[in-house]
Amino acid sequence: MSSDEERSLLAIVAALDFREIRMHGRTARRTVRSFGVDYDFESFQLTEAEPMPPALQQARRRCADLAGVAETSLAEALVTRYPPGSVMGWHRDAPVFGPTVVGLSLGSACLMRFRRGTAEKRRVYEVELVPRSAYVLSGAARSSWQHSIPPVPQLRYSVTFRQLRRAAGWQWITWARTPYPGRPAACRLTVAASSPSRHPGPAVRLTSGVRSTCRRVLPAHGAVHEAGPT
Ligand SMILES: O=C(O)CCC(=O)C(=O)O
Ligand SMILES: [Fe+2]
Known about the structure:
Layout: H1 3-14, E1 19-23, E2 26-35, E3 37-39, E4 46-48, H2 54-67, E5 74-82, E6 88-91, E7 97-106, E8 110-116, E9 123-129, E10 134-137, H3 139-143, E11 146-149, E12 156-164, H4 172-176, E13 203-206, E14 211-213, E15 215-217
The structure holds 2-oxoglutaric acid and fe (ii) ion (FE2).
């Protein structure tokens, strides 16, 4: 995406009416706005949201091309506003969403961290997300690795495009009630066949089309906690 394209998309995104997120009884510092589908972080419920404005549909087209999926399969656009110092805690995207997630970064750079494994064996990797770039999370990077955003240095926006695991009907709402440990078999990952020691990091495809292996960071750097309502 060019600087001009980013500027015009930012003008639209920055003017959106963002809403607060309450998770585990606390209000996160980042705020969000959903299009297409709305996901409630506390009740794990999906509801229909208003359609994406044309500028987001255009961005979705580019992101769908990058990921090699049909643009209409990216049913949700979640716009997140990160004020300086705000974070996104460790998570995997809910199993109600499909196998491919595409994220677009706007405004300023941040890191995205990845981890998996139990505490003593845990490895943490990170990639830099530069503004105007997009990343694709699929395979194990989507389903097995957790990801987080450590405190962002400056105001940043992201647009996360996600598929619904079941496009038709509303049966998947019951899946959304099942948090990760008990997620249905259909949500299991396609783990890369490569040996974990040779390819230890998650394969995250960035805009360049290069499958980059993330840089490993010390486990101590992996802690990202939701900041309080300050
Ligand atoms: O800010 C980002 O790009 C990460 C967004 C994310 O992880 C999510 O929306 O689930
Ligand atoms: Fe995520």
